[in-house]
Amino acid sequence: MEAKAFRPEQIEAWRAAVAKHESDKKAREEMLDSAKAGAGGACFALGHAYMRGNLGFPKDAETAYRWWRRSADLGHAEGAFLTAAAFLHKDEKAKGVVEQNIRLGDAYLHIAAALGHGATQQQMHARLQSIAPPRQPPRPGSTNVFARILCGEAPASVVQKASRTLRRLCL
Fold first, then answer.
1. Is the pLDDT of residue 1 over 70?
2. DSSP string spanning the chain?
3. pTM metric for this prediction
4. What percent of the chain has pLDDT over 70?
5. Which of 34, 43, 57, 133 has its CA 20 to 30 A from that of 9?
6. With the CA atoms of 107, 109, 113 and 117 taken in that order, what torsion angle do they form, in degrees rounded to the nearest 10?
7. CA pair distance 74, 39, nearest whole angstrom
């Protein structure tokens, strides 16, 4: 049986592939070590590696979301945003992988905004504007007690009386 001769460019391509595999292996080990040590950025990058199946990690959405949540808990703004999107099921990949939880999703949105995630801050501002539009002052001489309370123009005794009345009506 005659040995097949390989062209030099084939040999170089194989060497490059082996070198890339070795560098991927080293990067994978460094990323895992950093993430386990509590580096938020490494946890976030590890989440992306699992989501995409990069650096030799298996493609696993559930593990990716777990690492993103850990990065959020360690103070990573983008990790908090992706965790919120997963819990709120805004990310299609999260459906069936992460159980929908509106309360946790909102909490992580607040965390992402507090950590400085710009898009989340804008989203939260727009949301607050839609929920609580700017207060309109009551017309002069208005006798509507609740309008005066909402605008802060009612005396404390009126506010307390209205509060007691509402509690009685609601119980």
1. no
2. -PPPPPPHHHHHHHHHHHHHHHHHHHHHHHHHHHHHTT-HHHHHHHHHHHHHT-TT----HHHHHHHHHHHHHTT-HHHHHHHHHHHTT-SGGGTTTS---HHHHHHHHHHHHHTT-HHHHHHHHHHHHHHSPPPPPPPTT---HHHHHHTT-S-HHHHHHHHHHHHHHH-
3. 0.62
4. 63
5. 57
6. 140
7. 7
